[in-house]
């Protein structure tokens, strides 16, 4: 009878530990899901900002076409470098 009692206690301890691990894993999955949602939201904002910046630069280059675009108008050829930022944003939810 005593062996059965200790076996039940050991089983209950193992079960309690497994439930604790399950709950911790569940909490970790919720944190990862929230983090992923945040990354997707930031990615969408970065895509929109990149598109807006590209459109503004394109409009300025078009309006300042006679002066060879914005860099030519500001005379950034010899003294300074004209900065071109590569567009490396892409949708994360593909």
Structural class: mainly alpha
Query: Treating each run of at least 4 consecutive H or I residues as one helix, how many helices?
Result: 2
Shape label: rod-shaped
Distance between the termini: 60 Å
Helix content: over 70%
Number of DSSP E strands: 0
Q: Which spans have pLDDT < 50 for at least 5 consecutive residues?
A: none
Q: Which strand-content bin applies to the residues?
A: under 5%
| Overall domain count | 1
From N to C, what is the helix and strand string? HH
Write down the oligomeric state: single chain
Cα-atom radius of gyration: 30 Å
Mean pLDDT: 78
Q: How would you portray this structure in words?
A:
- It is a single chain.
- The protein is built from 2 helices and no strands.
- By secondary structure, the chain is mainly alpha-helical.
- The chain has one domain.
Question: What's the helix and strand layout?
Answer:
Elements: H1 2-63, H2 69-73
Summarize the structure.
This protein is 71% helix and 0% strand. With 94 residues, the protein is an all-alpha fold. Keywords: Membrane, Transmembrane, Transmembrane helix.
Summary keywords:
94 residues; mainly alpha; 2 helices; 71% helix; 0% strand; transmembrane; transmembrane helix; membrane
């Amino acid at each position: 009878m005593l062996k059965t009692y200790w076996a039940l206690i050991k089983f209950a301890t193992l079960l309690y530990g497994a439930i604790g691990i399950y709950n911790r894993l569940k909490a970790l999955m919720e944190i990862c899901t929230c983090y992923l949602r945040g990354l997707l939201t930031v990615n969408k904002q970065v895509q929109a900002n990149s598109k807006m910046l590209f459109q503004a630069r394109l409009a300025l280059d078009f309006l300042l076409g006679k002066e060879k675009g914005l860099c030519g108008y500001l005379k950034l050829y010899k003294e300074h470098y004209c900065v071109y930022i590569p567009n490396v944003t892409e949708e994360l939810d593909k």
